[in-house]
Amino acid sequence: MAGFVRDRRSKQIIATFSAFEADLIRSLAAQLVELLHNEAAVPASDDPLAALFDFTGPIEEPDDPVLARLFPNAYGDDAEAAGEFRRFTEGTLRDSKSRAAGTIIDSLEDAGLPAEPEGEELTIDVELAPDVAQVWMRSLTDLRLALATRLGVTEDDEEYWASLPEEDPRAQAHHIYDWLGFLQETLVLAVSGRR
Q: Between 130-151 and 169-191, two packed helices, what is the crossing angle to 10 degrees?
């Protein structure tokens, strides 16, 4: 996989994925969408202004560590202010992150990724307009944060990951994390015109 490049003529951002790679990205994006909508919203308020703007987001920090990482407290020393900020912003942020992950899924399927890819020879050529590439960048960040949180990735821990045997599922998941980082880096370079 060569990553993303910019087509000099069309200005489209392009990449070619194997069916396995494309299906893996789609699966990760779908899992993120599911996670983002896994918690119930706060019941609607009796306040007419709040009802008008639908401020029914959660007020508590999420229990799931990935969601807590994606939606950190805005005020670490003031639980009430953090809850109010979360109530007014988290629903919109969740929807935005969900739409971005959905854009990845749609892009892959629009490029020809079947529901059940079969055969190693199938490749998927993805062409992204610059604005869609920006959405992919944001969602790849979310996917990497989610994987890093689940795996417990920390700064300067490469020696630990390198010490794991290849058959260890954690090592395999870390390879996916690294690969998503590679995709993200090539996408940033392609969008900026340096690749």
A: 150
The domain segmentation of the chain, as residue ranges, is: 5-191
CA separation for the pair 83, 72 (Å, rounded): 11
Written as one letter, the residue type at 23 is D
The model's pLDDT over 49-105, given as tens digits with 9 standing for 90+, comes to 555 555 556 677 888 999 999 999 888 888 888 888 888 888 889 999 999 999 999
Determine the Cα–Cα distance for residues 72 and 32; give it in Å rounded to an integer: 17
How far apart (Å, rounded) are the C-alpha atoms in residues 105 and 85?
Answer: 30
Express each pLDDT in 155-192 by its tens digit.
Answer: 999 999 999 999 999 999 999 999 999 999 999 999 99
Q: Which two tokens stand for residue 57?
A: 């987001």
In terms of Cα–Cα distance, which of 105, 109, 90, 165 is closest to 135?
105
Residue 122 φ/ψ, nearest 5 degrees: -70, 130
Token pair for 173 = 């998941």
Round to whole Å and give the CA distance between 63 and 79: 15
∠ Cα 20 22 25 (to 5°)? 110
